[in-house]
Amino acid sequence: MLDAVTLDQLRTFIAAAETGSFSAAGRQLGRAQSVVSQALANLEAQLGVQLFDRSTRKPTLTVVGHELLSDAKQVACDMDRFKARAKGIAGGLEPELNVVAHVFLPTSVLTAAVGAFQQQFPRTPLRISVEGMGAVIEPVLEGQSSFGIRAPLFTEHPELTNEHLMTVPYLMVAAPEHPLARFGRPIPRSELMQHVQLVLSDRSRLTSKTDMGVLSRKTWRLSDLGAKHAFLKAGLGWGGMPAYAVEADLASGELVVLELEEARANSFISLSAVYRTDTPPGPAGRWLLDELKRAAGSRSSRAATFVPS
Asked: Is residue 101 pLDDT above 70, yes or no?
């Protein structure tokens, strides 16, 4: 008998409990009082319990009715979510959104955009991974991510569409006690090659054998930007970092900017959104991408121009 319980019966039960009478529930639902009364009697018979005490002028919830009311509301609410999600999927809303972000994307930009996304799409699961180099491009090409945020790499790939997001200043830095920090003049490549350069490792098959910005024959590879940052401050090597990540260290003197003969010390990294041209982001993905652009633009307008000494 329990399998025969319908959502309509539960909604009738909820309406009668909340309005305080079968007639008021009927008006709310657009039905005759007799139809409401019969629906509730059938529900009670199917459940094997009495939900309303009908001995008074107005039916009142029994103890069991009170206990089951919250469950009925939860079932109705879950069904509403189920129908809304199905409607969204049928209309093109992604059942889940996967995004891969470049390690140089400022956390503040990502956090602001994701926070807004949570408010706009509270029922859409979001999966975000942070990678570098080709590890951003690979899941996009393979259709595992709706879009990625990449640095200048595969910019002319025939299967990909790019949309500019923001530009991030990129600095070559070292701890003040590092030999390169005390070199005293623009550092030639021959000198850089004598010291360990800290480099982010690439976990992609696409670019695992490609080195970008590697100037030393001595390298330590790290998979985490935070670890690289810590190693730099510890004087374990020299290397490049996004300016926003080291501004406080430069101000405090824990790191210094290296002046290189090759114009790399004061360069910029352009970050762009990238997605497959044949499968562009759906409504949720498009919304998040636009929100990332807004958050990036807002951050850029607030940030003062950073000029290292």
From this structure: yes
